[in-house]
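Board work, copied verbatim: Aldehyde oxidase 5
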Amino acid sequence: MLLAYLRRKVGLTGTKYGCGGGGCGACTVMVSRYDPIQETVLHWSVTACLQPICSLHGAAVVTVEGIGSTKTKLHPVQERIAKAHGSQCGFCTPGMVMSMYTLLRNNPQPTMEDIRETLGGNLCRCTGYRPIIDGFKTFCNVRTVNSSNSHNNESDISGELFSMDNVLPLDPTQDLIFPPELLKKAERLCFQGEKVRWISPADLKDLIKLKAEYSNAPLLVGNTTIGWFQEEVHPSIHPSTNIHLTTLFYLGVTVGAGCSLSVLKDVLLQGIEELGPEKSRVYQALVQTLQCLASKQIRNMATIGGNILSANPKYDLSSILAAAECTLHIVSNGNANIFGIYLYIISHNFLFAILFFLIANPCALQWEFVSAFRQAQRREFSFSIVNSGMRVTFRHDSNVVENLDIFYGGVGPTLVKARHTCKELMGRYMGTQLLEEEIYVPPTAPGGQEEYRKALVLSFFFKFYMQVTLELQQKVGMNDLPLEYLSALKPFKNEVPQANHSFQLVPETQSSNDPVGRPNVHQAALQQATGEAVYYDDIPSVKGELFVSMVTSTRAHAKIISIDASMALAMSGVVTFISAKDVPGQNRRLWFNNPEELFAEEEIIGAIVAETREQAKRASEQVDITYEDIQPVFFTIEEAIEHQSFFDPKRKLERGNLEEGFEKADHILEGELYMGGQEHFYMETQGLIAIPKGEAGELELYVASQHAAYTQEVVGITLGIDSNKITCHVKRLGGGFGGKVMKIASLSAIAATAAYKTGRAVRCVLEREDDMLITSGRSPFLGKYKVGYLNDGTILAADITYYSNGGCTLDESSFIMEKALLHMDNGYKIPNLRGHGLVCKTYLPSYTAFRGFGGPQGLTIIESVLHEVAARCGLPAHQVRDINMYKDEKCYTHHKQLFSPHDMVRCWNECLEKSDYTHRCLSIKQFNAHNHWKKRGISIVPLKFGIGFSKGFYNQVAALVNIYKDGSVLISHGGTEMGQGINTKAIQIASRILKVPMSSIHIKETCTGNVPNAAPSAASFGTDAVGMAVKDGCEKLMRRLEPLIKKHPQFTWQQLVSKSDMQKISLSATGFFMGPHTSVDWEKSDGNAYYYFTFGACCSEVEIDCLTGDHKNIRTDIVMDVGRSINPALDVGQVEGGFVQGIGLYTIEELQFSPEGVLLTRGPSRYKIPALCDIPPQLNVHLLRNADNPHAIYSSKGIGEPPVFFGCTLFFAIKEAIAAARRERGLSESFPFSSPATAEKIRMACEDCFTRMNPPDRKVKTKPWAINV
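↓ predict structure ↓
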């Protein structure tokens, strides 16, 4: 593929590997071709991971390195995304840049909608997308909204996080020219590889001839449906561009099979404009579908022929094409035939035919109506769960059905036609009474969700019925649709997020040379935007380098009888197989008195070492392992409770007297809340390079780790060598979120073992699916509670038991549970409170740390309690939250830690005010009264989040500050840069103390050889600890220089440094920060668990579609107490990024496991993180004014983890909207609802006549498709 060629052969590593399946956009490049028909050069953004090299003959490929660099000249796209703070970890940035660059090559003056569509296929896990949009929309001459000053009269408040003054102008005349040598006619080409022969025909006649000669050869154009033929050795025929023709006619569109979906969309839009809305209904339905289909990059590559021939019922086009009576012109075995799409799909072998033309009727009949419907996990860039195309023709001047076609995808193994319903309704009035009896989704259907899919079948038809009825009203005077039904006909519109920020300016007395408190750009943003920033897999190959691929267990709980690697070892390029017997040191180690195995029976069994990545991967699949199953085997929390399978220690916190509290209560409520897990989905997968130095057992590791010291320790234990011979280097991470603390240490030990055994450098780069399989993510939680409360909503007592799924080993699950318990009170003073925490031992891969640790789970469950109490009392939820809130000047948590809630209450009140909460509640009530099938909800929550490690010994770090004779400064510290801006803030701090510009200060890398024994970069404590250590080191140096400064006040910095060197003054100093001692006595429920608390409040509004379960995030307002911000731009970015990760946690990110414990949702095609379409159109972040924090560096506060929890406001707002729908239908407002709030859960909670049709037979036990673990 092009990606591997660019990265490994050419050395252009700016193009990143993110998923290998076209699902993230990290590898986006621009491909240009000359079109001899249009006599112009066309530019397309494509994903390099899906682009076969052979298909690029005659094309020009432009990567991020080709458009600009910091060494020569930046391209305006690169400069603006950096200046707008649109690059955090930076791994997705080159892909973003290339998508935008391609758009500008095609359209130098794009609209906001153009930008939205262009970036729809580029995922970002750090920023929350808003700053990326802010940078790019400057090309549209759209003013960036920073109107915070209009909301306040304080002169020290600003909303301007960046300035675009003096940026480079976009000058299309400076763009790269298309190479003239590529302006040539197509000719037959043949490439022969190790496994495949690739043939590109010269023209259509040549293609037909080749197909007759190689009848089994697949036709491959876009290659977006990857993997069908990977293991077969045969020719692949790649049609050339001269059959990609499209022609627009008044009676229809004729499209070549090789026409890309993007070209098809453009042609259809042209047809809509030419024909008008009445005569182009088919085109409109097709465009509506195409806009949500895949991404811009995939649509640029994928063809209409490939989409149809793939015959995947989840592909949306087939249903609407069939409904529109489109025809296929087929050339097969020398014969030409015409087929209807539906008959062709259900009856043909697709490998033996060439789809030549498709003809679409534009639907010009006055009494004909066509619509397309789809529902997916994510509104864009996601396979549909169910899709549908429907077409009806009425008798002239009547509402009697003359002809009806209804097609569904996603409810069977192929496209399904509702034949009986269509037949029975002919000659009758249109109705929904027959359809429920015809479409059947068996419980065993692949993908599960059978009840939901049945409901969608009926809901889509009902929507179509309402659409048609509305249009017929004006024609034949039918009975009017109720006005409150009409909003159901308007699909949610995806919008570009706009922002309103505010932060406090630095005092006027602060020196203009002092960067602390100012919104400085991330120190590596420009390098990240140009592709120059180096990540571990960007490091050039070492001579003799090998590659390692893991062999994982296929059984959840079994004894290994034998391992036979002979077949793998006999394969080309394979060097060795390593397992537990190859470990020179210890295969088993203790982690806080709990055993952790390197090569274990439940997870990684061994590893193949080979000359190339591909050879290692193929051979790892050939290792034969014989198992003996062990019983019992279980995966869910409920099963673990049944088997009493728990890890030690079991934790408890308690205050007050629960029995007395329950006795005094007016009401007792018992309930539970389940929260699903979450995949980290850092853009850069885990990996490292292990390089043996060949002397004294020395080993260098270039590793993607948040905790380099722990990686060093584990590798030392595994190899049986001292840590002083192992050096770990961490330049930067492409995202971490807690997932690169523990698991990477084991992967490093495996790679180090391979390097030790072979004596050669070994590189390990996990593929995305393997990464998800091996590393797990956030622990699923189940909270069971009993609550006593008064009529006014005051909670007197709460007894909560938390269960988490820890997997097969403890990892960090006990600490995660402790954090959940320590946050179970959130901001509420519940006088009698008890929490039990039990980590369930199951037979899944072990769960690990994730941003927020157990905080979001502990906080969400208590918020659920407050929400349910409010519902039972018939009171607004915010009122119940307010009445239970900590408000005294001095308060104690349930673990007896003293704190002041003053700033939390300020955040709460400001959020109520800035969100216009009271007025919007009234508007929502009015909206819900006038809309039956759409409902809105709003929710606001406060936040109290502990910062630092509750294990006190982790609260320490060191830094090394070196000043060189030329006056430049080099800083090394124990933290890890992973997008949060820790290096940028460290440089700001050093700049303030040393009084030198930030440009004179450099941070090269995190290295265990420079700063030993560092704590992990986690717990939102990185800047607190590193900042104080850097400050300490710089102050030591300034104290040494002070006599010279006094003696020579006229000296420049460089003169001062030169003079100090002459006087033998040491210009190197180690700074150290020893944080507070934090600990908890779990027997006494007593202890200062945290350094301090970060406070905040968040309000979110959503709208749901009761018929489909779809929802739209309308607006979010966040007020955050970050103390005195060291860098407001970075802090706002962390708030937004954390919140958007919370959007995923609470609404769309759903991990599915088979009943056998196999992770089904591996890779971006099945696991969906938030994309641009999921961001609220209004996302406002305000940093609390005049907030101080005496405990941390320059009165700042840690901010990385707390905002994730704010995603729960969407969850509870959705729950409010569902309650409004249920209330209108006379149903209980209390109903079971678990996180994440997926479309399926929303739809099924909005019970109505459609969900009650064909209820499942509960007596019949069937094996579910997926289980909640």
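The chain is about 30% helix and 20% strand.
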